[in-house]
Structure formats: structure tokens, C-alpha cells
Design goal:
Number of domains: 2
CATH superfamily of the largest domain: Probable inorganic polyphosphate/atp-NAD kinase, domain 2
CATH architecture of the largest domain: Sandwich
Number of helices: 6
Radius of gyration: 21 Å
Number of strands: 16
Structural class: alpha+beta
Strand content: 25-35%
Shape: globular
Order of helices and strands: EHHHEEHEHEEEEEEHEEEEEE
Helix content: 10-25%
Largest sheet: 10 strands, mixed
Length: 306
């Protein structure tokens, strides 16, 4: 084996069928579980077949001298990426966001094995394209038709130096449905809040959770573009009281601006990114977090001109 060849990290997550089998023991029991609740097993079986076929096609396209490692989504927070790794994500777009927070400049290739189920905003390549993409990775020849799209991340830095990155958004609040209490400050303004938490999103995340929140606002915030070094933030359901306000409930931050949050939660306060609650940072009374555009970006491999 050529030890100078790149190490390819293939990131996947359990398909719906695999998740059901993990829960119910066998595929027949999983099928019975769905059908007993008047749900059809065939759609999840079809998706499973597409995912498995896509993974097989991807693995067959890997040059024989490349080292390869398969990593499950659940193991990302424990996996150690090397600086020269090439990361190949097979699945839905959210899986790219799940892995992006752990990368520091490594190339990321998103592969969509089932375009009828997933949009392919980040996973833009078909399994059959992987051979051509990997040839570009080896040669970096622009004539091969691929390039890099840099998508900024958002980072939250605690006062003790802990950092949490996200490609879509950071959530700051209480881990349950209890109200989150904190003081929010940015651009010379400050306000105490009692709310359902704060969302700080990138341009990539502007098409997801943040878009839903923004659509319900009387005065929508201008959301950043996918490659723009900017952040939009939203306070979810701020509650007005004698001690808390609702005026500083959203806005945008440029590359040099920050959002500072001081926790007033005696228990349950957390910060997590891109929905990975198992990889959270605590956020309790007196602790602070500074949110800003990160000094790193996802290096997403795309077709030239796409």
C-alpha cells in the first residue's frame, strides 16, 4: 500500500432500515412494527437499497492504493482526523454539517445516493461521479471540472477557552423546554432575556432552522449567503417582563462583529452545534460565550461553475 496516498474517510449514518433493525432486532420485526401502525415498509426499504448501492459504488471507485476508513455519524466526536485526510460523506446534506465542525481544512466531498429523497445542496455528487472527483483530488487539475467552495463556520468560544464550531447553526439555551435566562450583548446594545434560546446561523444554515424562524418574524433579518462571512442570530420566543426584554431579538453580524451571551441558568444550560446534542458545552450561571464567524471554513468539493 502506498503510504503517501491520501487517507479517505467515508462518513455514513444508519439508513432508516438499519435504525429500525437496531431498535427491533430483525428486519422482519421492523417491517411488522411499521405495518402494524399502518405505515408502509417499502419506501424505507427502497431508500435503504439506494444508500447501500451508493456506498458500494463509492467504495469501488476508491483507488486501490488509497487508505480508507469508514466512520459512523455517532462516532464523529471521538474520531481523530488527520490534516491530509480526504472526507467523503455519503447520505443526506445534514451529514456534511455533522462532520464539518470537526474539520480544519480537509477536503470534503458530499455524495447523494438518493436524489428523490434528499435535495443534495451539500451532497452534490452522484456515486458514479466519485471516481472523477478523486482523480481531481490527486491531480488538482482545473480542467477536470471540479473546484472548492469555501463555506464559513460559526464558532462559540467560552470564557475558559472551549470552542464549539458549527456549519449550520449554534444553539444556546436550556437543554429541555424550560426557559433560558441570559444577557445578550452586541454592537453596544445589551438586554436580559427569558426565551427558548438563541440560534446563531451561517449562510449554509440560513436555508434550514433559521429560515423557519425568520419566516415567522414581523421584520425578517437579511440572511447571509452560503459563502458570505456573516452570521444571523435569532432569539426564540423572548418573553417580556419587568426583568427581561424583547427588543434585541435578532440581527446580523459581519466578520469582525461578535455576539456575547452571559448565562443566568443555574442548571441545564448548554451550547451545541448542528443538532449534535451529545457534543455539547455546558453554559451555566456566570459562564460566557462569544459567538462570531469562525476562522475556518468547510472546503467543499463542487463542480466548477456550479
Amino acid at each position: 500500500m502506498n503510504t503517501s496516498a491520501p487517507r479517505l474517510i467515508v462518513v455514513t449514518r444508519p439508513s432508516p432500515v438499519e435504525a429500525l433493525v437496531q431498535r427491533h432486532g430483525t428486519q422482519s420485526q421492523a417491517k411488522f412494527y411499521l405495518e402494524s401502525r399502518k405505515q408502509r415498509f417499502e419506501p424505507v426499504a427502497r431508500l435503504d437499497a439506494s444508500v447501500q448501492a451508493g456506498i458500494a459504488t463509492v467504495l469501488a471507485a476508491v483507488p486501490p492504493d488509497w487508505r480508507r476508513v469508514r466512520v459512523d455519524r455517532a462516532d464523529l466526536d471521538r474520531f481523530v482526523f488527520r490534516p491530509d485526510d480526504v472526507v467523503l460523506v455519503v447520505g443526506q446534506d445534514g451529514l456534511v454539517a455533522n462532520v464539518a465542525k470537526y474539520l480544519e481544512g480537509q477536503l470534503c466531498i458530499g455524495v447523494n445516493p438518493d436524489p428523490s429523497s434528499w435535495d443534495g445542496v451539500l451532497c452534490r455528487h452522484a456515486p458514479e461521479d466519485v471516481g472523477a472527483v478523486l482523480r481531481w483530488v490527486e491531480r488538482r487539475d482545473p480542467s477536470l471540472g471540479f473546484g472548492i467552495e469555501a463555506r464559513p463556520l460559526v464558532v462559540g468560544e467560552r470564557e475558559d477557552g472551549q470552542k464549539l464550531y458549527a456549519l449550520n447553526e449554534l444553539f444556546i439555551g436550556h437543554h429541555s423546554h424550560q426557559s433560558a435566562r441570559y444577557t445578550l450583548s452586541t454592537s453596544g446594545q445589551s438586554e436580559r432575556h427569558s426565551s427558548s434560546g438563541v440560534i446563531a446561523c451561517t449562510g449554509t444554515g440560513a436555508t434550514g432552522w433559521a429560515r423557519s424562524i425568520n419566516g415567522q418574524r414581523a421584520a425578517p433579518v437579511a440572511l447571509p449567503g452560503p459563502t458570505e462571512p456573516a452570521i444571523a442570530f435569532f432569539v426564540r420566543e423572548p418573553f417580556p417582563s419587568v426583568a427581561t426584554g424583547i427588543l434585541l431579538d435578532g440581527g446580523t453580524l459581519g466578520a469582525e462583529q461578535t455576539l456575547d451571551v452571559v448565562s443566568e441558568m443555574s442548571e441545564g444550560g448548554v451550547i451545541f452545534g448542528d443538532g449534535i446534542e451529545t457534543d455539547a458545552v455546558e453554559f451555566l450561571t456566570g459562564q460566557t460565550v462569544r459567538v462570531r464567524v469562525a476562522d475556518r471554513a468547510l472546503q467543499l468539493v463542487v463542480r466548477s461553475g456550479a
